[in-house]
Amino acid sequence: MTTTRTDTRPTSIPAEVRVAFLLWMGALAAGAIEIALHDTEITGLAVRLSLYAVVAAIALAMRAGRNWARLTLAVGLGIFGTLSLVVEPVSWLLDGNSLIDAVGRTDLAGALIATSRTLHVLCVWGAVLLMFRPRANTYFGRRNVG
């Protein structure tokens, strides 16, 4: 009896997907740093850390090839998450404030928050781009199992 293999899924996770996963973890780490520097209220801290745990679980599902997870990360964090990170500084600039003045009078905590937010956004954008590279598309297309 001859068996034919109909499952054409790649046997390993493409590098683009592995790096995208690491970038999602980097985004979470940058967010955690910002929380540690910014949020002192226990309720806000608990909510954000709970959300980060959900994001980590979704990132694990993405790494495992779940297309729903890739789309959730791209739309939920790539679009809405980025907006939530940039709306405050952009609104502040649109109100007529000067970036040069702000940099001149910022303290260490402010500089660390700005740096962590910048790294957070860069990690998110990098991860989203990598999740939609051709090899990643093939991986998710063949592994679209829910």
Poorly predicted ranges (pLDDT <50, ≥5 residues)?
none
**Quick check: average pLDDT?**
85
What distance lies between the first and last C-alpha atoms, to the nearest angstrom? 32 Å
Percent of residues in helices: over 70%
Largest sheet: none
SS strand fraction: under 5%
Please state the structural category.
mainly alpha
Order of helices and strands: HHHHHH
Specify Rg, calculated over alpha carbons. 19 Å
The tally of beta strands, per DSSP, is 0
What does this structure look like?
There is one protein chain. The two termini are 32 Å apart. With 146 residues, the protein is an all-alpha fold. The protein has helices at residues 15-38, 42-63, 67-94, 99-105, 108-131, 134-142. The mean pLDDT is 85. The longest helix is centred in the middle third of the chain and has 28 residues, at 67-94. It has six helices and no strands.
